[in-house]
Amino acid sequence: MARRMLIRVLLADDQSLVRAGLRTMLEAHDDLTVVAEAGNGAEALVAAVELRPDVVLMDIRMPGVDGLLATRRIVADPRCRATRVVVLTSYDLDEYVYEALRAGASGFLLKDCEPFELVHGVRVAARGDALIAPSVTARLVAEFARRPRRARPNTAFDALTDREREVADLVVAGLSNEEIAERLVVSPATVKTHVSRTLTKLGVRDRVQLIVLAHETRTT
Asked: Which residue ranges does the record assign to the Response regulatory domain (predicted)?
């Protein structure tokens, strides 16, 4: 059996006991290693740029530079292009989570999640997928739909083909790849290809950022 590729993780939390617990859970698996710890957002940014981890587990509420600003700066830095930020939060879909997703986070994990959920979440984020379950995605979509759109005109959607635009609309509606495949009567592999091309054309990292972009820039 082939050995899994080693996933390098940066822990950012102002509580040393929390970091110690996360490290213990992650390093119990031979495909996960913690490359550094940070006690605030400023330290997390420095470590992310220097070490370029695959995944940053980022607490939101930290002294000084908080997790929101750190996430925004890490995602914007071209040196961290391959790094995915996963937000750690005590509250499911609170205001800080929305802001973190707007800042470029690829998803979130609750601090009281089970060890297997933490490990699975890091692996999902590392392979470039959005770390939000379909049921939560639907709620995220509903919340963004309820809020006023931001006036940020963007013509990127004009570059999509008709099929890509159709797939994008279904992603924004909260459908999974399997549900989209069933709706369009195509294979999940075909949908995955369309989603990948759509993300590339729009310049976003994952389907969460596609949802954010759509609800903040599109006028229809």
From this structure: 8-126
